[in-house]
Amino acid sequence: MEITGGIHQIDGVKGANSYLVITPSAMLIIDTGMPGNGQKIVNYIKALGKNPAKIDCVVLTHADIDHIGSAAELKKLSGASIAIHAGEAATLAGKEGFRPAPGLLGVLLKIITPFLRFQKVVPDVIFQDDSEIKGIKVIHTPGHTAGSICLYLSPKVILVGDALRSDQEGKIKPPARRFSLDTTRAKASIRIISELQFDILLPGHGAPIIGKAADKVKEMLKQMK
Ligand SMILES: [Zn+2]
Hints:
Layout: E1 2-4, E2 7-9, E3 19-23, E4 26-30, H1 38-47, E5 57-59, H2 65-68, H3 71-78, E6 81-85, H4 89-92, H5 103-112, E7 125-127, E8 131-133, E9 136-140, E10 149-152, E11 157-161, E12 165-166, E13 172-173, H6 183-194, E14 200-203, E15 209-210, H7 213-223
Parallel strand pairs: 4-5, 5-6, 6-7, 11-14
Antiparallel strand pairs: 1-2, 2-3, 3-4, 8-9, 9-10, 10-11, 12-13, 14-15
Helix pairs in contact: 1-3, 6-7
This protein binds zinc ion.
Zinc ion (ZN) is lined by residues 16, 64, 66-67, 162, 204-205.
C-alpha cells in the first residue's frame, strides 16, 4: 500500500511493519518483519514494476527479531546491503543473543526463539549515533533498545521503528514499558522526535499516523509520566 509519494507499507508482512522507500536516487527497505517474509517483500517490489536487485540498502531500526527476521533472506534474494546502528550489530550478526525480556514474556521468548529460524547476517553499514544514508537522516533514539534509530525522510515523513507505536485506529502511543530496555531514555528520544517537523509518522507496529503527526507526538508527550 502506497502511503505517500514513493513510500509504501509492504502488505502482508508478519511481525513488525516493513516499508519500501523510493527516492529519486535510491530504493530502501526499512525493517523486514519476522523470518520468512523475504520473498513477499521481493514480490511486492516486482509487482510495482521495479527490480529488487536495485534495492540499495535494507535499514533495520533495531535488532528485535520481528524487525530483522528476514534481513538475511532479503540480502540473498536482492544483493542489498544491510545497515543497522552499532548498538545492535552484534545481535544481528549472531554474536549476541536477543535481549532478554522481563517476566513470563522473557521465559516464553527464550523457549520459542530457537524455533523461529532466525538467520544471522553481518551488517555492511554500521551507524554511529546520528548519521545519514542515501541522503536520509538517521537519528539515534535509544530507549526501546540501545541502538534504536529513526529515519527522518523529509519535513513530511518520519519512520520511528519502536520508539513509538500506534493502535489500529491510528492513535499514537509510547513503547510498551515491558518491552523497553530503558524507559527514561525512551522518553528522552520521544522528546527528540517531537522537536522535528513532520506530517506523517510511520511506526514499527500499528497503523500510520497521517496528518499533523508531530503535534500528536507533542500532545502524547505532555500526558506521559
Ligand atoms: Zn517491534
